[in-house]
Hints:
Layout (H helix, E strand, L loop, with lengths): L2 E7 L4 H15 L3 E6 L14 E6 L1 E2 L5 E2 L3 H6 L10 E8 L8 H12 L3 E10 L6 H13 L2
Bound molecules: flavin mononucleotide.
Amino acid sequence: MGNVLIVYGSTTGNTEWVAGQLSEQLKAAGHSVQTAKAGAIPAAGLCEGKDLVLFGCSTWGQDEIELQDDFIPLFESFDSIGASGVKTAVFGCGDEDYTHFCGAVDAITDKLTNLGSKVVGGKLKINGDPGDSTEAIKSWGQGVISAI
Ligand SMILES: Cc1cc2nc3c(=O)[nH]c(=O)nc-3n(C[C@H](O)[C@H](O)[C@H](O)COP(=O)(O)O)c2cc1C
């Protein structure tokens, strides 16, 4: 059984819903799962003792990538989360009509890689209503589970 943490930033509830789906899937696979809003968990040592940390974040802004509001302070403290050597995975909701579709997922993945984390499962980028992407979410969740 793995010790899994899901941390998400979500303004209108889409990424939060995906976090809930993934939590259920991981629990059903026998893992211990803690879920936290990005603004409600201290950055320091966040990854310590975890077998896998999932980061979920929606993307905002127009011409530039902006992370979801709650996630910004956490991201600014990412150097302290203890990501080196820890498995992580990144997901998020966005809209393909924007220049940087799910740019937050790219930014978080790049930062985790630079910090020495092993980012698993590829990037889960969801366009529009996540309720229309349940199969893609399940399939990604399965890939992440098999990487634990
Ligand atoms: C002002 C505004 C800017 C946005 N900018 C982006 C963007 O740059 N890239 C993107 O993929 N989606 C963008 N979106 C779409 C949101 O990320 C999308 O609605 C997402 O589902 C919100 O997820 P959340 O409810 O988890 O916060 C934008 C939406 C708004 C209203």
